[in-house]
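Translate sequence into structure tokens.
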Amino acid sequence: MFRPADDLPTFEELEMFKECSLMDDKLLAEMVSRLSRLQVILGMRVIVVEGDFRGLVGRVMEVGDNKVAVDVESQDHVERVNISFVRMAFRLGDQVRIKQGPHRGCTAWIVDVQYLMVSVINVEQALEVHIISSNPCIANK
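Result follows.
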């Protein structure tokens, strides 16, 4: 049985091939976008990155095949948007756990986001890591 995720690389594989000359920014962005759609879950803080509600931040209240219901924080109501239009909304200082790669399982804090790269630090372990993120967006505080 074929599933849409079957033809996608993992984020770890993207990390390995991101410097390849054949991996242009457009292709990299498309792969990250497709992987991101597979990871939208209830309660996740998201930012809308396309469409009429672009820039709005909220929490996912419902996940369908192609749409998500987002409780928009600033407007106190729920909007239904295409699932491909949302990304996880990081805030500077958010605590995250690294899910893949050599620092897998490490807890760190977000200090910067540039395009598809998220920079995190863990002062106790003297660790600073720059990783490809499935959620390349920062929400305003």
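Note: The domain at 45-85 is CATH 2.30.30 (SH3 type barrels.).
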